[in-house]
Design a protein that fits this description.
Blueprint lengths: L8 H15 L7 E2 L1 H8 L3 H13 L3 E4 L3 E4 L4 H24 L8 H17 L2 H17 L4 H13 L5 H7 L2 H5 L2 H9 L3 H12 L9
Antiparallel strand pairs: 1-3, 2-3
Length: 214
Amino acid sequence: MSRLLPTNLRDQALSLLKLRLISGDLVPGEIYSAAGLAQELGVSNSPVREAMLTLVNEGLMEAVRNRGFRVVPLSDHERRNIYDIRLLLEIPAMAQLAARRSVVEPHGKRFSALAASIVSAAGSGDIVAYLDADRQFHMGLLDLLENQHLSKIIDNLRDQSRHYGLKRLSESGQLVASAEEHAPILAAILTGDEAKTARLMRDHLQHLVGDWAG
């Protein structure tokens, strides 16, 4: 279990809890206490409780009086809605990056390293590290468009996504295949191939309602 560094504890706790929600490590419908999660993370209750209250405000958890916080389940209908919106936003955004490849080129090595980190995490079965590197890769690319509204919307949609199938894929060794999709996406962007970038992103996002869904 990942433990937190002694700085920005609330933000670190929030980030890690979101990743555990997305992966299904924090089980839908289950109730968790701030004290229990704080013990796992090796910190005091306060930053974890603050993080969990933020998750309540974002609709990802709900407070249960005198018991703790329940993970809010995601219905199949909600999952499909999130997928549809992400298709509408992320595919043209990535294609736009290919059209403006000059803004990506100076950062090519960084994103290549992130793509490799995603594959490494998938191979080692570290789902939280996989999701963290995946977020850095996709959101880092989107941030190069310098459209804060777009980045915020997509980041929020990512927080609401649930990938309950990742554990099964990891255990069967199949997660590496989807992890390896990031390098070709980056290559298509860097060569300025808008059509290929869009096609690869569409195939990549299909996992949201396919094998990642569980």
